[in-house]
Amino acid sequence: MNITHKLSSKKQRALEILIRLKREYPQVCCTLNYETPVQLLVATMLSAQCTDDRVNQVTPALFARFPDAEALAGAELGELETLVRSTGFYRNKAKNIRGACRAIAEKFNGEVPKRMELLLELPGVARKTANVVLANAYGINQGVTVDTHVKRLSKRLGLTEQSDPVKVERDLIRLVPQEDWENWSIRLIYHGRAVCKARQPECGRCLLADLCPAAEI
Ligand code: SF4
């Protein structure tokens, strides 16, 4: 089979997967709690190596004390570290959050920029965080969010052989229609949490089993 055929059959499979996931998870949303794009950016930065539930436990006190970019830009680092401590890697996270908010306050009038290349200039912001913010805060699909669930499921489903998130994203961008890039990620995340778990995927009750090369039935 030549590469074109392989790509088109992968595309068909990706589309069928998406159709089934939309049917299974009709109402989905970002599971981080936030009220503004700045708060979503901060919550997403905190979610690295941490569950959304844990982040949602931390952010009410954090945003009550420091509600916007200007407030976070002026935060005392020790206090910020204490507030985000339970999300892990708290020293780096606090430093990056303050650094990113300083840049947002100074260069962008306190508003999170709407362009990928500007977001990537902020300390601690990589493509995953930028994609989440652009899609959920602004409705802009500039890429596919690749978190640990999207990476694991896309690989198991035979849609990428890559492990590096940027390369996984590059593969998915070729397979999934642009208007569905965020749909893809968010539904894969739901399915990863509910069925295709990291340690014990429940292939016996998976609606994608007949499309999945990794199915263990
Ligand atoms: S069949 Fe198994 S490995 Fe494949 S997506 Fe479903 S749960 Fe994951």
Automatic annotation (TrEMBL):
Ordered alphabetically, the record's keywords are: 4Fe-4S, DNA damage, DNA repair, DNA-binding, Endonuclease, Glycosidase, Hydrolase, Iron, Iron-sulfur, Lyase, Metal-binding, Nuclease
Q: Which residues bind [4Fe-4S] cluster?
A: C196, C203, C206, C212
* Cell cycle keyword on record: no
Q: Which GO terms fall under biological process for this protein? A: base-excision repair, AP site formation
Q: Write one Gene Ontology MF term.
A: DNA binding
Domain HhH-GPD as annotated: residue spans: 46-194
Q: Which cofactor does it need?
A: [4Fe-4S] cluster
Enzyme Commission designation: 4.2.99.18
State the free-text cofactor note: Binds 1 [4Fe-4S] cluster.
Does the keyword section mention 4Fe-4S?
Answer: yes
Output the superkingdom of the source species.
Answer: Bacteria
* InterPro entries the UniProt entry points to: DNA_glycosylase (IPR011257), Endonuclease-III-like_CS2 (IPR004036), Endonuclease3_FeS-loop_motif (IPR003651), HhH-GPD_domain (IPR003265), HhH_base_excis_C (IPR023170), Nth (IPR005759)
Against PROSITE patterns, the record matches this protein to:
ENDONUCLEASE_III_2
Query: Which reactions appear under catalytic activity for this entry?
Result: 2'-deoxyribonucleotide-(2'-deoxyribose 5'-phosphate)-2'-deoxyribonucleotide-DNA = a 3'-end 2'-deoxyribonucleotide-(2,3-dehydro-2,3-deoxyribose 5'-phosphate)-DNA + a 5'-end 5'-phospho-2'-deoxyribonucleoside-DNA + H(+)
Tell me which Gene3D superfamilies the record gives. Helix-hairpin-Helix base-excision DNA repair enzymes (C-terminal), Hypothetical protein, domain 2
Q: Which family does it belong to?
A: Belongs to the Nth/MutY family.
Briefly, what is this protein's role? DNA repair enzyme that has both DNA N-glycosylase activity and AP-lyase activity. The DNA N-glycosylase activity releases various damaged pyrimidines from DNA by cleaving the N-glycosidic bond, leaving an AP (apurinic/apyrimidinic) site. The AP-lyase activity cleaves the phosphodiester bond 3' to the AP site by a beta-elimination, leaving a 3'-terminal unsaturated sugar and a product with a terminal 5'-phosphate.
Known HAMAP family for this protein?
Nth
Name of this chain's protein? Endonuclease III
Native source organism of the sequence: Oxynema aestuarii AP17
Q: Which gene encodes it?
A: nth
